[in-house]
Fold this sequence. Notes:
By secondary structure, this protein is of the alpha/beta class.
Amino acid sequence: MDFMKDQLLPYYSIIPISFNIPTVFPQGQVLFCLQNFLHSYIQGISRHLEGGMEQTQKRVDGFRFLPPSLAAWIQIFIRDRKFRGTIPWTPMSKPLSRTTLALVTSAGISLKTDPPFDMEREKRETTWGDRSYRSIPRGTREKEIDVNHLHINTNPIKQDINVILPLTRMTEFEQEKIIGRLAPTSYSFYGFQWESTEFLKEAIAPISRKMKLESVEAVLLTPA
């Protein structure tokens, strides 16, 4: 019983029992989904419990540090699909010391004068993420921002915006000639996007146009 209490019970509290299954899944697939979820959940617990054991063959485990319930959810409902298309790789056209740089983060930062990112709708619709974006002027300080994100701890960002959007550090780099210039505007969006097509239209396209107007040549992206 001590083993059960110490090793397994901590995982019980993170099972998403408030999940609105009829809203998210087709009615006929509910039982199938639950069966697969529990199977993957148990596998996730096993991975955690066996973390200290030596393995004869090493491999990269992208789920190792996730809670078992979250790992199970991702494995079932976000299928691993082979990428199709081309990657638009763009090499730097000039040294960083002469480049205009903008910052972009997916941490859900907004100015207090702007509407916050919509977490309430996501609580009701668990696979929906706010597809909008916010403009963050380069001189923004912690007292001017709000941070809304259901998937990260937002307190460190509220205490020091530079932990995720390093505006002050980049201004220092500009003064030290490490970068050419920090653009007047940086950007934040909400990093939980189930359907990327609409997000590209509603956020990334207008951000790209605004960057072009400010002669941005490179972007530092800080995922949350």
